[in-house]
Amino acid sequence: MGLQIANMDVRPPVLLAPMAGITDRPFRDLALRYGAGMVVSEMVASQEMVQAKPGVREKAELGAGTAGTSVQLAGRDPVWIAEAARQVADRGARVIDINMGCPAKKVTNGYSGSALMRTPDHALRMIEAVVGAVDVPVTLKMRLGWDDDCLNAPSIAQRAESAGVAMITVHGRTRCQFYKGRADWAAVAGTKASVGVPVVVNGDIVDATSARAALKASGADGVMIGRGAQGRPWLPGQVAHLLYGTSAPDVPNGAARGDVVAAHYEAMLEFYGLDLGVRVARKHLGWYLDAAAEDAGTDVPKPLRRAILTSTDPRAVIGLIRAAFADALADTQVAA
């Protein structure tokens, strides 16, 4: 039970996916605390990081040296991404992940992310530059291909393995699907069959049942959980417990969950500063409320929800969070 990434043994093989604007240091810390085998940072733009653009370097630096943390880099130019890899490795990164899967237009229009799957020769030069720049393991995250006429994940995976990539994650959609339809886990089997390094399956894995199905269909060595963990940072640890028998995470319910949400809120304010932190935290608070309401089979009163998500007074927000979970969401129960 584990992923052998070069000389690293990652246990359990249940990972938290990189998500822009979501998998920041406070969220990653929670996922690790609850039992994720590895967490991946937000996508860091290589050139902007090397040029020390405000807010970019911090994404990679903070927590880069934490055990179980991978730093994901995006870019188009081999020189810039190699230099960014050197910098994050020098700051203690244990693993560097190359982004070839982001479907966002602002990324692909710059010929980065999943757009690289349309130019595999260039992508390979970039991969070789990163592997040659650092001594830590380099991994790769991509999609099935650009579209249904360009399903080239297996061939790219083979070339990436030959270049020294130590693990490959495949989201079971093409770029042109974005997040529509359902992830095709069985299609990931072609990549698994084409390489000897570990392959991780990603896409629509939201609980232990979907994780088992994804592993069975793909033959992958592990799973990566993304959007399913929004509002549920304990989900990777829960899935690991149910699939691999790891220690069960102490998942909070009712008022205890309110305490965890309040602590996460305070951690975000400390991490970002008050003004930015209040704004960044709102999406997480919304996801926590949605997840708890789903688990409890109830709804948060609209005035209470609105107050939590619009107030700029941290003390008031914390009080409202605790009130919501102690009252409206007191019967929260967790299932994975």
Task: Report on this structure.
This protein is an alpha/beta fold and 336 residues long. The chain has 2 domains: 242 residues, TIM Barrel (Alpha-Beta Barrel); 73 residues. The chain is 45% helix and 13% strand. The chain contains 14 helices and 11 strands. The chain has an 8-stranded parallel β-barrel with strand order 3-4-6-7-8-9-10-11, surrounded by 6 helices. The chain has a two-stranded antiparallel ribbon with strand order 1-2. β10, α9 and β11 form a beta-alpha-beta unit. α12 runs antiparallel to α13. The protein is globular. The relative contact order is 0.12.
Concise overview:
The chain has helices spanning 25-33, 46-50, 57-61, 78-90, 105-108, 120-133, 153-163, 189-194, 208-218, 235-244, 254-272, 274-296, 302-310, 314-326; strands spanning 3-5, 8-10, 14-16, 38-40, 44-45, 69-74, 95-100, 138-143, 167-171, 199-202, 222-225.
